[in-house]
Write a structure and sequence with these properties.
Blueprint: H1 17-31, H2 40-55, E1 62-71, E2 74-83, E3 91-95, H3 109-119, E4 122-127, H4 138-152, E5 163-169, H5 171-185, E6 200-207, H6 218-222, H7 231-241, H8 247-251, E7 267-274, H9 278-290, E8 295-304, H10 315-341
Parallel strand pairs: 3-4, 3-5, 5-6, 6-7, 7-8
Antiparallel strand pairs: 1-2, 2-4
Helix pairs in contact: 3-10, 4-5
């Protein structure tokens, strides 16, 4: 569904019943899990894990393998997903959501398996360093390190390629944008074969990205409570993300990078109808279009923030994720055809 006029914000009957029931289950889980010994980040991480376990439904015929990426002073864990016995035409690097603080490889198993199923690609999920222990740009540095590793491991690992897709949900979508902007603004290495060169990005798949703090769009007001992600939680996530100076400070706020936006690859931006981040995500998609970036904007009807992690609970959510995957394939095919014609 292409984003269109806003629905009646008071009509809660438009919410997918399966997602409404899932939110109720999450609320009961929250109430039934007292954790006075945990701080805010620890509790959010625990609840995220419990929610994922509640909904986990592995897809048959999916091969999952963990890999360990060496980086300066640390090691980054990534997990590949591929359909058994099927050739993989491309690699989609995935950055999990969770307010930059929550989420991990396990919480996004279902989503990554479905992405591999729907696209036919190898999906590579990245467990980047999380806040508040590791303020921005630490998670961004991890994504860049993984892209460099993919370029370096060509011929060693079957999914390591010179050009990849990049995507994420929620905070992961923000990091995907920040990474694409950082790489678009950076000068290319003089020696294309040097280890520091990252894999190139030729497409972005973004689900309900946060674009900037202190947004006050109608969707932020309408869905601030009772639809999963709350306004207060989002404010806390932005606060804990931290900041930086220089070029990376601009990448933290993607809409401010007006000079770099035209250099981004084709993008699909998928928002949720009942999500506080809906309007800012759609405004940014229109900004990409105005900058000349081939962009497809989708609004998932009846969906709440985080619906892409609730695929076993909602057939409608699965349909929306599959549609976004197909939209990216069509967009990239069109961009390739246009380039060949030129």
């Amino acid at each position: 569904m292409t984003a269109s006029a806003s629905p009646d914000l008071s009509d809660l009957s438009a919410l997918d019943p399966a997602l409404a029931r899932t939110l109720q289950r999450f609320a009961r889980l929250d109430a039934d899990t007292p954790t006075p010994q945990l701080d805010y980040a620890g509790r959010r991480r625990l609840l995220s894990t419990l929610q994922a376990q509640l909904l986990r439904s592995p897809l048959p015929g999916m091969v999952r393998t963990d890999h360990f990426v060496p980086a300066q002073g640390r090691e980054i864990t990534v997990r590949s997903y591929q359909k058994s016995g099927a050739p993989s035409p491309q690699t989609l690097v995935w950055l999990h959501g969770g307010g930059w603080m929550v989420g991990d490889l396990n919480t996004h198993d279902d989503l990554c398996e479905h992405l591999a199923q729907f696209t036919g690609h190898t999906v590579l999920s990245v467990h980047y360093r999380r806040t508040p222990e590791n303020p921005f740009p630490a998670p961004l540095d991890d994504v860049s390190a993984v892209l460099q590793w993919l370029h370096r491991m060509q011929g060693v690992l079957p999914f390591a390629r010179d050009s990849v897709l990049l995507g994420g949900d929620s905070a992961g979508a923000h990091l995907a944008l920040a990474c694409a902007l950082r790489h678009a603004a950076a000068p290319q290495p003089a020696d294309a074969g040097q280890p520091a060169r990252p894999a190139r990005l030729h497409g972005l798949l973004l689900f309900y990205p946060p674009i900037a703090p202190e947004q006050d769009h109608p969707s932020m007001q309408a869905f601030s409570e009772g639809f999963g992600l709350t306004r207060s939680a989002m404010a806390r996530y932005w606060q804990e993300l931290g900041g930086t100076e220089g070029a990376d400070a601009r990448c933290r706020l993607p809409a401010s990078c007006t000079d770099t936006l035209p250099r981004l690859p084709p993008a699909v931006v998928c928002t949720a109808s009942h999500d506080i981040l809906r309007d800012e995500g759609e405004a940014f998609a229109r900004q990409l279009q105005a900058a000349g970036v081939p962009t497809r904007l989708l609004r998932a009807p009846g969906m709440v923030h985080g619906f892409a992690r609730m695929l076993s609970a909602s057939p409608q959510a699965r349909q929306q994720v599959e549609q976004a995957c197909h939209a990216l394939a069509a967009l990239l095919h069109g961009a390739t055809a246009d380039s060949a014609a030129a």
